[in-house]
Amino acid sequence: MAGSAGFRIECYDWAGGHEAMLRCGPDSGPVVVAALPLFEEGNRTRAAAVDVLRRLAGLGVAGALPDLPGTGESLVATGDATLAMWREAFAAACASLGGPVHVMGWRGGALVDGAAEVASRWYLAPLSGDGVRRELERLRRSGGAADYGGNVISPAMLDGLAGAEPGTSGALRVVRLESDPKAADRKVAGAPLWRAAEPGTDAALQTVVADDVAAWVAG
Amino acid sequence: MIPESKPEVDKTVRAVLKDVLGLSDERVAAFDDTTPLFGALPELDSMAVAGVLTEIEDRLGIVIDDDEVDGEMLETFGALTTFAAAKTLA
């Protein structure tokens, strides 16, 4: 892990309330706003994504990781969250930051930034809302319970995911793992942390991602 | 690149088991057709099965229907790779 990145907890307001936002790095200049993978995948990858923000701070790039309604410290119940709410809140978080905003969305995180006005989007292994739903259904059947691998997910959230696609407008860079046969601007080595049975980190992957994002943001 | 031969499919399935279940290189390298998986590999619980199957789908560019998933197909490494190869190389 990289050294001190000046982590601090700030907040942002959206129409439905007030959410926490992790910040690091400089107070001015471009800001990379992270959108984590959704649900269980987000738990598995949070440490790795936060380490990328830490490394970006080390490279002089500011970072932010907003809690979405129903996640982290949010007062919204997880089971009440909808994709529309996430998109609205994420856009508000981006708008609350000074300086050009660049989204770094991993996996289903690429589905929440569509309403945000940003300078660019950088996606790691993005997937469609239908892909997310399919995996959730399989997870629920595997678990044999009403929840989805321990997550309470509303029918409204599932409806919102149906047909949802990652944004393709504006400046966009897509990076995937070498093991992923789908098209990408770059393929990088590493294991899919979002699929691992236990949360984990991969210092080599996080370094490559941070360097790639920093170069992309610098244009 | 989508694998185009049985040895390549085997290699992909081995890599998926390593990545999803967090197994060591040595452990997955020792897998052969008779190595028992579901019920024998403690890491492969019912939740992990979902991750393994989805990752295999993505890497091989196939779709696995849930009614195709049973204990037999996950019983051994050989059964899983035979199933995956039949889908991929069809």
Q: Could you characterize the architecture of this molecule?
A:
The complex is a heterodimer of chains A (219) and B (90). Chain A has helices spanning 40-58, 83-95, 129-143, 155-161, 203-218; strands at 8-14, 17-24, 31-35, 62-66, 101-106, 120-124, 171-177, 186-188. Chain A has 219 residues and is an alpha/beta fold. Chain A has a single domain (8-218), classed as 3-Layer(aba) Sandwich (Rossmann fold). Chain A has an eight-stranded mixed beta sheet, with helices on both faces. In chain A, helix 1 packs across helix 5 (203-218). Chain A starts with 7 loop residues before the first strand and ends with a helix. Chain B is mainly α. Chain B has helices at residues 6-21, 25-29, 46-60, 77-88. The radius of gyration of chain B is 12 Å and the shape is globular. The mean pLDDT of chain B is 92.
What characteristic shape of chain A results from the CA principal axes?
A: globular
Radius of gyration of chain B: 12 Å
Tell me the CATH superfamily of chain A: Alpha/Beta hydrolase fold, catalytic domain
H-E order of chain A: EEEHEHEEHHEEH
CATH fold-level topology of chain A? Rossmann fold
Q: What oligomeric state do these chains adopt? A: heterodimer
Q: What is the number of domains of chain B?
A: 1
Query: How confident is the prediction overall: mean pLDDT of chain A?
Result: 93
Taking all Cα atoms into account, the compactness measure Rg of chain A is 16 Å
By secondary-structure content and strand pairing, the structural class of chain B works out as mainly alpha
- Net shape of chain B: globular
Structural class of chain A: alpha/beta
The count of helical stretches of chain A stands at 5
Mean of all residue-level pLDDT scores of chain B: 92
Short description:
Chain A has five helices and eight strands, in the order βββαβαββααββα. By secondary structure, chain A is α/β, with parallel strands linked by helices. In chain B, helix 1 (6-21) packs across helix 4.
